[in-house]
Write a structure and sequence with these properties.
The protein is α/β, with parallel strands linked by helices. Helices cover 48% and strands 15% of the residues. 38% of the residues are buried. It holds the Pfam family ECH_1.
């Protein structure tokens, strides 16, 4: 546990991070954003992790956006910029986390909460949730990097429609738009669905997942091809020399030798 506002739990090789403000629909206050950043930074050096899951407490909201009562107190350009940079740094700790981060959308993701969901590498949704970029209803654009993420994820035309309409996107449509990867069936507990979905990754080793994330991050950041190739090469060399690969290769060769030969 990093802080009462943000809870952390280790489940095997998976880190679970929970925004713990169910009574406030997990609104992203300044202190919550600071705690979120601290939670991810505290575990960034853990080379035994294969993935992280980010979710919200309860089942009403993943994150309802920025804490409006707090944000309304920002009345100078300096204060607005300082808060924006703080929030962006918190979301960057998610974007740049060295293994994939899965947003477990247990409830609605609105405004800044939608931006936080986009900061994750992929999203899994409960059937009742909605995603909405509601910033335009408050006469403001996105500011925490979520608009940039959205355009890279679904394309500029589709992102423009979602931003300009500020409409609620239900879970099933979110999958069709590419905002979410899957929706949990109604007859399966959401936590069980998340862990079952991640079970497909269970055979991957931490260093391999870090290499996959490095490639994904290079794409997200639009890095030059040379930098992407360097990231790919570094991950490949590290993984090749790791004992996990040595053992896996030895088993594969042994299996080839023991396989029955065709007599033609």
């Amino acid at each position: 546990m990093m802080n009462a506002l943000v809870l952390t739990e280790r489940m095997g090789s998976i880190l679970r991070v929970t925004i713990n403000r169910a009574d406030k629909r997990n609104a992203l206050s300044r202190d919550t954003l600071v705690a979120l950043k601290a939670a991810f930074e505290a575990h960034a050096g853990d080379r035994t992790l294969t993935a992280a899951v980010l979710t919200g407490a309860g089942d009403r909201a993943f994150a309802a956006g920025g804490d409006l009562h707090e944000l309304q107190g920002l009345v100078t350009a300096e204060a607005i910029e300082e808060m924006t940079l703080l929030a962006r740094a918190a979301l960057d700790s998610v974007r740049r986390f060295p293994v994939p981060v899965v947003a477990a959308l247990n409830g609605d993701a609105f405004g800044g909460g939608a931006e936080l969901a986009m900061a994750c590498d992929l999203r899994l949704a409960a059937a009742h949730i909605r995603i909405a970029f509601l910033q335009g209803r408050l006469a403001i654009p996105t500011a925490w990097g979520g608009g940039i993420d959205l355009m890279r994820l679904v394309g500029t035309a589709r992102a423009m429609e979602l931003l300009a309409s500020s409409r609620m996107v239900p879970a099933a449509e979110a999958v069709g738009l590419g905002l979410a990867s899957a929706v949990a069936p109604a007859d399966i507990a959401f936590d069980a669905f998340i862990m079952g979905w991640l079970e497909g990754w269970s055979h991957q080793r931490p260093q391999v997942m870090r290499a996959f994330k490095a490639q994904a991050l290079a794409e997200r950041l639009g890095l030059p091809r040379a930098e992407r190739e360097a990231a790919e090469l570094a991950g490949f060399v590290e993984s090749w020399l790791h004992e996990d690969h040595v053992d896996a290769a030895a088993r594969a060769i042994a299996g080839m030798r023991s396989a029955p030969r065709s007599t033609g």
